[in-house]
Amino acid sequence: MHNPRPHSDNKSFAFPFQCIALKIVGAWPLENCDSPNFIGILYYAWSYTIIILITLTCLAQSSFVFYAWGDILTVTECGCTVLMGIHNLLRLIHLNRRRGALKDLTTEFVNNIWISQESNEFVAQKCEKDTVLLKVISAMLFVLICMYVILPLFELIHVTDSGSKPFPYKMIFPYDAYSTFPYVVTYFLTSLAGFGVVTTLFAEDSLFGFFVAYTCGQFAILHEKINGIVDRVDTKSTKTDLHMTLCAREMTRKLRLKLIIDHHNTITKFCEHMEEFFSPILLVNFTISSFLICLVGFQIAAVKMTLGNLAKLLIYIVSALSQLFILCWKGDRLIECGSLTSWKFYSCEWERLHDWQYPQSLNNNKHRHRKTTLNCPSGTSFIRDIAFSVQRSQKPLCITAYKFSILSLKSFTAILSTSLSYFTLLQSLVEKNE
User: Fold this and answer.
1) Is 1 a member of any domain?
2) Contact between residue 292 and residue 80 where contact means Cβ atoms under 8 Å apart
3) How does the record say this protein sits in the membrane (predicted)?
4) In a domain, 7, yes or no
5) Residue 93 and residue 96: Cα distance in Å, rounded?
6) 116-121: long-range contacts at Cβ-Cβ below 8 A with a sequence spacing of 24 or more?
7) Which segments of 98-179 does DSSP mark as H helices, in order?
């Protein structure tokens, strides 16, 4: 499998452990995506088997939804798992079709974005802390699917009628799925599909959050470099020595600015590639999350249920809200870091460089032993480059949901507002039927 390593400090580098789920379901890119060997072909076959399994499970759940279409409470209950299945089915299809793009993106991240402890310990530790919350949400989602799979087994103990055996989700099958052997096989396969759905969800989101966290870390390093563009010179004896020192500093400053611009272009290019890869999935996520949050909230508020089912739905809605909030928060952080760059360029004191004059200590013999500090003078080209950098960094740097919406906290509040509207509509429909 594809496993890019950084050139330095590669022992401490690792993708988020959640990415193991992408490897298990066959969504991780191989080292040679275009012409895989026999093992690679089997790996691709396994990935399509998971996709087919999730598709069949979603069809079985959808059949039950259409069968109970007149009952709003039942439809909303089953609609949650159907929408979650469709959401992550589309994610898996996208990952399988864009293996090459994911391979290029991970390689670019390792080579240009990842920050080792050796290069900048403070920023690297901060980036690692930013991924802790994603691990917590991943654990919550894993507990959720375990509850969906395990709780029906406890109900099975009290079932006397073979025709009412519980499954992880409510489904209708075109065959007798309640006989002993078909029931065991069907239960196992639908549970496997559920694990594939949930693990894909938190694995891809964790990878996205991992990328954004270290991209923001690169912006922090970039801002430190910008703050150090303009240095100061200690004047000593003669104008000639001072002039030579200033010319050397001028050349150093221009080289420093060129490296900063190259660094900024590298970060910008990675953000563009990240936007290109993740934006289709974010659109699906935004669209389906509005319905999911509405349906789960409606179930908790309007339906009487057992304590186990209530616990499942509470974990469900907390996980869904947290997952969506983390994505929007990460997008907001990226916008904030990108916008701060233009201010850093503007506030680096470049506007005072061309106002330099020789200090009085060089024109007055009385004070020739005085040590004076002054800003290095700057040429027109340097000022023009700074002004261009200010203008270039003002361009919004953001991740979008396929250009329909920007990933930010404003988008999060908009989704919650939409979910509340749907919730109000469902509640009015139920009250009308009663």
Assistant:
1) no
2) yes
3) Multi-pass membrane protein
4) no
5) 5
6) 116/6, 116/8, 116/9, 116/12, 116/13, 117/9, 117/12, 118/8, 118/9, 119/8, 119/9, 120/217, 120/221
7) 99-108, 121-130, 132-157
- Judge contact between 18 and 207, C-beta under 8 A: yes
Q: Please give the structure tokens belonging to residue 81.
A: 């798992």
| Residue 324, both tokens | 């969506």
The count of domains in the chain is 1
240 class by beta-carbon count within 10 Å (0-12 exposed, 13-18 middle, 19+ buried): exposed
State which H helix or E strand residue 233 sits in: strand 232-235
CA distance 328 to 382: 37
Per-residue pLDDT tens, the chain, 434 aa: give them: 788 888 766 677 888 888 898 999 988 998 876 777 888 889 999 999 999 999 999 999 999 888 888 777 778 778 888 888 898 899 999 999 998 899 999 999 999 999 988 888 899 999 999 888 888 888 888 888 888 888 888 888 877 776 678 888 888 888 888 888 888 999 999 999 989 888 888 889 999 999 999 999 999 999 998 888 876 544 444 455 555 466 677 777 788 888 999 999 999 999 999 999 999 999 988 888 888 888 777 777 776 767 767 777 777 787 778 888 888 999 999 999 988 998 988 888 776 665 444 444 444 544 444 444 444 545 677 778 888 888 888 888 889 988 888 889 898 888 888 888 888 877 777 777 66
CA atoms 155, 160, 169, 23: torsion sign: positive
Cβ-in-10-Å burial (0-12, 13-18, 19+) of 50 comes to buried
DSSP calls for 117-136: TTT-HHHHHHHHHHTHHHHH
Helix then strand count (H, E) for the chain reads 11, 2
Q: Are 28 and 15 in contact (CB under 8 A)?
A: no
Write out the two tokens for 348. 């680096």
| CA-wise closest residue to 141 among 302, 287, 317 | 317
Cβ atoms of 230 and 344 within 8 Å: the answer is no
Within-domain flag for 279: yes
Instruction: Answer whether residue 11 is part of any domain.
Output: no
Q: Where are the alpha helices (DSSP H) in 350-408?
A: 380-393
Six token digits for residue 184: 């065991």
Report which of 213, 2, 212 is spatially closest to residue 102, judged by C-alpha positions.
2
How many Å apart are CA 139 and CA 316, to the nearest integer? Answer: 12
